[in-house]
TrEMBL record:
Name of the protein in its database record: Pirin family protein
Residue ranges of domain Pirin C-terminal in the record: 209-309
Residues covered by the Pirin N-terminal domain: 51-140
Family matches, as Pfam families: Pirin, Pirin_C
InterPro entries hit by this protein: Pirin, Pirin_C_dom, Pirin_N_dom, RmlC-like_jellyroll, RmlC_Cupin_sf
Family of the protein in this entry: Belongs to the pirin family.
Domain of life: Bacteria
Gene3D superfamilies reported in the protein's UniProt record: Jelly Rolls
Species the sequence originates in: Neobacillus paridis
């Protein structure tokens, strides 16, 4: 029975393979130490290739950051980023004049549309203890008609994200956080307005699944055309319709069939991505995703000419004040403040 439900099993790496309408998923997990006065690591950075530090050393990477770890100002065009922060904090600044800080369960849904510059810096706000960081960044394609949308972002705050909890016959629980999509009568918060996920007929789901040891859970059948992938990123092993899947593997599943999952003896953590494909040509070069090579060349020319509106923040790697808390200040002046 499992053979027609499990279509592919693949070991995970830093960048996770995805399928239309998703483009790529990245999993960042860094054991950052206590922070210094600049909200960078309060340890020596000698021996690192600062600016291109993607090698784990002493438990963490600086990425493109030289003082604070993260990704200084860089352009995107033609797709969306969905950044799910499991632990730690991210500081956001962009070319629309927006900025913010989010983390510890928050999700940022950013539509890059016709082009924007933005940052993802990882401020080490705690000076008296370590600053561990774990997040997913998921790239979700935009339909051709939406690639010219104005850039904007929406915050899905941790305390507002719906959850579904089920209990197995043995009393063990499975909890599903609904970043996007619907499950068992509950529906996620709305995604950004231009998103492919906005239309419920596109069946876009982004679920974070936590299974207690020996819990069971059933993914419902959706549609034959659905692209469904689960990423078992932490735990020991699970059973999918009798097939053993070890941790740190991707499993492509049939979208039109119910799939029963049974966990092993450790807590299991799974990311599920599914959706109807956009079924349009994809031309991608670095941070730009369009429908043709000609459009890619036009995107680069547009960026060289306009810098997507320019950069209003001075330095390319800005961070908010250490005491800023969780907040979002949008380009139109609207402010959301959380604790």
């Amino acid at each position: 029975m499992g053979n027609n439900k499990i279509l592919k099993i693949q070991k995970l790496s830093f960048q996770w393979e995805t399928e239309d309408p998703f483009l790529i998923t990245m999993h960042h997990k860094d054991a950052y130490p206590a922070g210094n006065d600049q909200q960078g690591p309060a340890v020596s950075l000698e021996g690192r290739d600062l600016g291109q530090d993607f090698t784990v050393k002493d438990g963490f990477r600086m990425y493109h950051g030289t003082t604070v770890p993260g990704f200084p100002a860089h352009p995107h065009k033609g797709f969306e980023t969905v950044t799910i922060v499991l632990e730690g904090f991210v500081d956001h600044f962009d070319s629309t004049g927006a900025r913010g800080r989010y983390g510890n369960g928050d999700v940022q849904w950013l539509t890059t549309g016709k082009g924007c510059l933005h940052t993802e810096m990882f401020p080490l706000i705690h000076q008296d203890k370590d600053n561990p960081l774990e997040l997913f960044q998921i790239w979700l394609n935009l339909a051709a008609r939406e690639k010219s949308a104005n850039p904007n972002y929406k915050m899905l705050w941790a305390e507002d994200i719906p959850e579904v909890e089920t209990t197995s016959p043995n009393g063990k629980k499975t909890t599903v956080r609904l970043i996007a999509g619907s499950l068992l009568g509950k529906t996620s918060l709305d995604p950004a307005p231009a998103s492919w996920a906005k239309d419920p007929d596109h069946h876009v789901s982004i679920f974070l699944i936590h299974m207690e040891p020996e819990a069971t859970f059933k993914l419902p059948a959706v549609s034959k055309t659905l692209n469904r992938n689960m990423y078992f990123y932490q735990g020991e092993k699970i059973q999918l319709e009798g097939t053993t899947i070890m941790a740190f593997h991707r499993v492509k599943l049939a979208g039109d069939q119910e799939v029963e999952m049974t966990n092993g003896s450790q807590d299991a953590f799974i990311l599920l991505l599914e959706g109807e494909p956009i079924q349009e040509p994809v031309a991608q070069y670095g941070p730009f995703v369009m429908n043709s090579e000609e459009e890619i060349r036009a995107a680069f020319n547009d960026y060289r000419r306009t810098q997507f509106g320019g950069w209003p923040w001075g330095r390319l790697d800005p961070v908010n004040e250490r005491s800023a808390g969780r907040f979002a200040q949008h380009g139109d002046g609207r402010v959301e403040q959380r604790s």
